[in-house]
Amino acid sequence: MGHVAEPAGFRAAASRFATGITVVATGDQDGAPIGMTANSFTTISAKPPTVLVSLTRGRTWQAVARSGIYSVNVLHADDAALSAHFAGRPLLRDAPPLVSREGFFVLPQAIAQFACEVVQAIDVADHTLFIGEVRWCRHNEGTPLAFYASRLRKGVGMEISSADHVAYPGDGWWT
Ligand SMILES: Cc1cc2nc3c(=O)[nH]c(=O)nc-3n(C[C@H](O)[C@H](O)[C@H](O)COP(=O)(O)O)c2cc1C
Known about the structure:
Layout: H1 7-14, E1 19-20, E2 22-27, E3 33-38, E4 42-46, E5 49-56, H2 59-67, E6 69-74, H3 80-85, E7 99-101, E8 104-106, E9 112-124, E10 127-139, E11 145-148, E12 151-154
Antiparallel strand pairs: 1-11, 2-3, 2-6, 4-5, 5-10, 6-9, 7-8, 9-10, 11-12
The structure holds flavin mononucleotide (FMN).
């Protein structure tokens, strides 16, 4: 392999790409819910509705590989504790609040839920890209939890409001 970017610089540059935070959930071999925090969620296509998550080999990876389904749950700004909990720091005393809905485990308080069936799994480096076709999805209003420069942030101003809409070129920008 030729020269590659040095890891600390790569991480810092990647951290400048602002994302939301999701919990990716599925059922394990005993049918119990399991989930992990992931910001690698990407939409791929609307025809058919297709998304991907990039998961490292762990317990949730194993459960998704086995079940062939997963949900992506977009966290609300008030749910930073859920982000830490599902990133391997179990802060919540009670069982994780994943509930079964139409064949998928989901987080009821998420501002969006995508119920996906794996249509392709592609191993890349130490992760697997789980490409999923969206069987159903739902969304709510609310301020998103954001991840930027290695920190969780309240997506203040990211709630849907016309006040912070930035016009695109062609949207009156040039006139
Ligand atoms: C903000 C944040 C984003 C994360 N995004 C991802 C991700 O996209 N893919 C991934 O494999 N791990 C990601 N992680 C790490 C996993 O959440 C963590 O390794 C988790 O414990 C894995 O769960 P598991 O034991 O069920 O495999 C993220 C962690 C944090 C805090």
